[in-house]
């Protein structure tokens, strides 16, 4: 999967490639989906949600330019797969999921897999996780119509956020915080489930 689907399509960061090799994707999908776990495609995980395709997981992680000592906020725990990839690389991952059943299931899988640097919260990801802010990086795995301001504000100076933005169709947007300004750059077109908010 890593060599044919991810490396060949331009992901070069060795830390990301190593994390993708280390995390068994089949652990994060339903039993009937396990035969397709290593295909480069999103798969349903229940509750109307999906596990992202491996290339997109790797691409989004690489764009954050992680060194290893970061504190990262993930919005949309989903299956827990992206949190595991991040936890392989960084010091701490704070992950929020609005659907309690998914959060609990992901927590079980990740704790069983031995991760001790992932912290879980059930709640509205659009408001971030203020108690542990600020973050060196924010990764959002579902698409809002526009970038939630609260998430930008919880970035460190020079912190980076990767987020899919748009309704029917989305683009991945990279946001870099520069003191009081936020520099935004559109990257590639993507398809994500909508980001659910209670507001």
Architecture overview:
The chain has 199 residues and is an alpha/beta fold. It has one domain: 3-Layer(aba) Sandwich (Rossmann fold). Helix content is 26%, strand content 30%. The chain has six helices and nine strands. The chain has helices at 2-7, 14-22, 54-63, 81-89, 100-112, 149-153; strands at residues 43-46, 49-51, 71-75, 92-97, 118-122, 135-140, 155-165, 170-178, 181-190. A seven-stranded mixed sheet has the order 5-4-3-6-7-8-9. β7 and β8 (170-178) form a beta hairpin. α2 (14-22) packs across α4. The chain is globular. The model has no long low-confidence stretch (mean pLDDT 95).
The CATH topology is Rossmann fold
How many runs of DSSP E, i.e. beta strands?
9
Which runs of at least 5 residues are low in confidence (pLDDT < 50)?
none
Order of helices and strands: HHEEHEHEHEEHEEE
Strand content: 25-35%
List the total number of helices: 6
Q: Give, in spatial order, the strands making up the sheet with the most strands.
A: 5-4-3-6-7-8-9
- Characterize the quaternary organization of these chains: single chain
Q: Sheet bearing the most strands, described?
A: 7 strands, mixed
Report the average pLDDT across residues.
95
**Rg on CA atoms, Å:** 15 Å
CATH architecture grouping: 3-Layer(aba) Sandwich
CATH superfamily: Vaccinia Virus protein VP39
- Structure classification: alpha/beta
User: What is the overall shape?
Assistant: globular
Domain count:
1
Q: Helical amount among residues, as a percent range?
A: 25-40%
Furnish the topology, listing elements before pairings.
Elements: H1 2-7, H2 14-22, E1 43-46, E2 49-51, H3 54-63, E3 71-75, H4 81-89, E4 92-97, H5 100-112, E5 118-122, E6 135-140, H6 149-153, E7 155-165, E8 170-178, E9 181-190
Parallel strand pairs: 3-4, 3-6, 4-5, 6-7
Antiparallel strand pairs: 1-2, 7-8, 8-9
Helix pairs in contact: 2-4
């Amino acid at each position: 999967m890593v060599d044919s689907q991810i490396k060949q399509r331009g992901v070069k960061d060795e830390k990301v490639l190593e994390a993708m090799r280390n995390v068994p994707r089949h652990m994060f999908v339903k039993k009937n989906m396990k035969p397709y776990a290593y295909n480069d495609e999103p798969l349903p995980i229940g509750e109307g949600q999906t596990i992202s395709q491996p290339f997109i997981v790797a691409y989004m992680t690489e764009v954050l330019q992680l060194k290893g000592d970061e504190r990262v906020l993930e919005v949309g725990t989903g299956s827990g797969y992206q949190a595991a990839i991040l936890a392989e690389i960084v010091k701490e991952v704070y992950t929020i999921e609005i659907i309690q059943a998914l959060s609990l299931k992901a927590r079980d899988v990740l704790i069983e897999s031995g991760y001790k640097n992932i912290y879980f919260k059930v709640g509205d990801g659009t408001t971030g996780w203020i108690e542990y802010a600020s973050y060196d990086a924010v990764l959002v795995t579902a698409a809002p119509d526009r970038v939630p301001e609260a998430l930008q504000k919880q970035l460190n100076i020079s912190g980076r956020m990767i987020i899919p933005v748009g309704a029917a169709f989305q683009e991945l947007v990279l946001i870099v915080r520069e003191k009081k300004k936020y520099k935004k750059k559109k990257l590639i077109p993507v398809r994500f489930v909508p980001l659910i908010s209670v507001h």
